Every structure is written in C-alpha cells, then in structure tokens.
Amino acid sequence: MFRTDNKNVYELTEKAQKLFEADDFAGALEAINRAISILPRNVDLHDFKSDILFHSGDFEETIKELEFIETLDPGDASHYSMESLCYLQMGEDEKALELADKAIKVDNDYEFSYYNRAKALNNLGRTEDAISAYKLSLEKNPSDPDGHRDLAELYLDAGNYKMAERELKLSLRFRKNDKITNDLMVELKLATGGAFEFTKALLDAFKNTADTDYLVRITDFLLDNGDMDNAEKIAKDFYNSALDNLDMASNLAKVYYIEQKYDMGNGIFKEYIKRNNNIEANEEYIKMLVTTAQYDLALS
C-alpha cells in the first residue's frame, strides 16, 4: 500500500490497517502516528490517517489532516472532496459547497464531488439547484444509490410521484437493503396506491431489509381498516414462519387482544417464553398484560 522499503513503517502500517478493520480507531491512529514520525512527509501515510480520523467521527481533525496533505500534494480533488464531506457531516453546508466546487474545478471527472455538491445544495434548501446537481451527479455516477434516493425524496416532496418512483426503483436496484429508501417507497405507495399496493410495498420492504416492523405495519393497516379476519390470518402466517421472533409473537398476540381473545393472546406469549425464556420476552408480555388491563396476571 505504501511506497517505502522501511521495515518499521511497513509493520506499523500493517498493524494500523488491522486495527482499522477491527474498528479500533484509537489503536490504528496510534500506530499510524508512529509510522508518520519515521516518514513525516509520506502522503500515503497521511491519507491513511485522514481515513482513520474520518471513520472515528473526528471531522475537525480530519480537515486539519487534509489541509496538511494539501501542502504536500496540492491540487488533488479527492482531498477537497473529502473535506467537503467532513463539512457536510458537521452541518456546515456553505463550506461543504465551497469545497465541492473547488474539487470539481481541480478535476471535473472526480464523481464523488458532484454528490457532495448536490447534498450541500439540498441541505441549504436550494431545491431546484439541488435537483439539477443530483442529475449531473448521476450522469457522472449512474449507479449511486444515495443520489437516486435523495433525488427521489425531492420529487416526492414536490408531488412528482412518477419521477420519485423511477428514482426509488433505481436506488433499490443498486442497494436493496437501505431502510430509508424502502421507507420512501412505502410512503410513495401510501400516497398514490390502494390498499394492495401499499401492503405489497410493505412486504417488499421486509424482503429487502428483513425488518419485521414492516410486517407489523401490514397488520396494523388491516386493523385500522377494520379487516380483523385478514389481520389475524396474516399475523398467524407471520408468526408461524418465524416462531422465535418476538416481534411476530407480539404482533399476533396484539390482534387477539384487540379481538378480546385474551386467553389466545396470552397463550402466544406463553408458548414463546417456553421456547425463548429471556428478559425481553417477559417484559413484553407484562407490558401487554398491563396494556390490556390484565393486572392480576401481570402481578403474578
């Protein structure tokens, strides 16, 4: 990774890399600082240090490190772009925009700068400029799921549901498991579709993310619309397909409680606790007993 024959530096950077991959950022920083003390003007070492600082969440120190790197290796768009990203993380959007523009001026083919620029404009509330910037960013990097997702959200806010759906589908094509993108698709279908499309969107979101909250929302939607029979049927299906999932047990028990089938609801919890006797399950059962005014059982 580093252009040096110095054995000590090589060993220290290898150590830093392993610690970095293990998310031990303090240890990685200590190791890379020792390497830098041997070769203080090695750009690769300082680049690695800036990565460690960024991933540790110390954006101010990352910026200082990048500014030092620029004295060693001026005119590198990747450094300006990373500074821009740091300012975005810190909520300093005007500065982020300035650095993104600087990166683009240095190298108009460095694709990541365009996303930073669009994000900064979006955060500043310059919606039309942001839409144009996202489009340009996606011309540079068509497979960027964040760019498609952010653009979709702007279209959704503007009521342009057709374009929002197009961008969401593209975002999901490149990254299916992003919860924000799936939430936006569910929101879109709630605004534009009927019951079938909305529940299908929730089911698709569950398939994409494995987040059982989407299944609970299907049950709640049916309950809110007075469709008790289907709510119970679907909640049973969800429960039977994941017998060791507390969310699904609680979801089915909730349906029984709403139907005033208290013994059946309690039975679901008892079955679950027999298989998975843990604190979380017992706490959830007690909470449900209190919610349904079964105080004697809750205290027993």
From TrEMBL:
InterPro entries: CellSynth/LPSAsmb/PSIAsmb, TPR-like_helical_dom_sf, TPR_rpt
The keyword Repeat belongs to this UniProt entry's keyword annotation: yes
Pfam families: TPR_19, TPR_8
Keywords: Repeat, TPR repeat
TPR repeats: 77-110, 111-144
Gene3D superfamilies given in the database record: Tetratricopeptide repeat domain
Protein's name according to its UniProt entry: Tetratricopeptide repeat protein
Entry superkingdom: Archaea
Organism: Ferroplasma acidiphilum
